[in-house]
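Lecture notes, part 5. Sequence design as translation. It can be helpful to think of inverse folding as translation between two languages: the language of shapes and the language of residues. The source text, in structure tokens, appears below.
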């Protein structure tokens, strides 16, 4: 609902859903499927072709419950090849419909009739239409279709670097030509059931798929855990904006950060 159909089908977003989650249920932290689905893919399910950038992306989110407790999520989004012939055929059909609509709109903007279509579209419109169709083309016999997919870790504390390293290693194991030393289920079971939460003031070293991972938890008299790199804050906000935000914090002003 509310989708912009002027965009090409590849640029549109589609509904996503949770394929699986483990464990199935935790009494003290019930799994909120709708919230996790929305926060893992805030822009919806997306498609790409071999011509598009498909580098994996990592982002995080926080779920705050009514009692003020927080749960942290860390998400790695990647693209995998679509193997369903039905989905590929549907995408090509969407493109054919989209290009027909775009062709009609170019024709309407040129005030042409069906009888004099070829002679009425000027050279500029014809060139722009050709570029549009090249950019918006999808040929099922020529192009490879990819769809977005996420793997997510939900944790009680924001161990961003540890979760990031584990998810990247898990992704490499999934996409590698050589299988990992152990089945993937072994690594997932290990981090869910066998890796303990480090006590306050202590660090913990555990093994991921390929390399060891270290996470550290501050003690009671230390600053709270902030595992997010400060460099990214400077890169995103800039020095002047960050100084202004910091000044507003010191003056106890209300701050609203808005982004896409």
């Amino acid at each position: 609902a509310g989708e912009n159909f002027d965009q090409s089908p590849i640029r549109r977003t589609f509904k996503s859903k949770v394929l699986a989650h483990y464990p199935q249920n935790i009494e003290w932290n019930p799994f909120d499927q709708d919230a996790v689905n929305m926060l893992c893919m805030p822009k919806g399910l997306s498609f790409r072709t071999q011509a598009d950038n498909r580098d994996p992306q990592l982002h995080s989110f926080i779920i705050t419950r009514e009692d003020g407790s927080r749960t942290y999520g860390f998400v790695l989004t990647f693209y995998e090849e679509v193997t369903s012939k039905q989905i590929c055929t549907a995408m090509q059909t969407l493109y054919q419909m989209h290009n027909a609509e775009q062709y009609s709109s170019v024709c309407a903007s040129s005030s042409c009739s069906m009888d004099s279509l070829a002679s009425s579209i000027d050279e500029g419109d014809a060139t722009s239409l050709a570029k549009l169709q090249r950019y918006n083309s999808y040929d099922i016999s020529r192009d490879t279709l990819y769809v977005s997919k996420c793997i997510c870790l939900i944790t009680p504390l924001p161990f961003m670097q540890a979760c990031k390293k584990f998810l990247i290693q898990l992704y490499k194991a999934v996409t590698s030509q050589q299988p990992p030393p152990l089945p993937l289920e072994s690594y997932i079971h290990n981090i869910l059931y066998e890796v303990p939460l480090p006590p306050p003031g202590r660090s913990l070293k555990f093994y991921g798929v390929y390399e060891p991972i270290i996470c550290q938890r501050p003690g009671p008299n230390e600053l709270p855990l902030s595992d997010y790199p400060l460099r990214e804050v400077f890169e995103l906000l800039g020095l002047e904006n960050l100084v202004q935000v910091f000044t507003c914090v010191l003056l106890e002003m209300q701050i609203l950060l808005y982004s896409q």
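The translated text above is only one of many valid answers, since several sequences can fold into similar shapes. The first strand starts at residue 47 and ends at 49.
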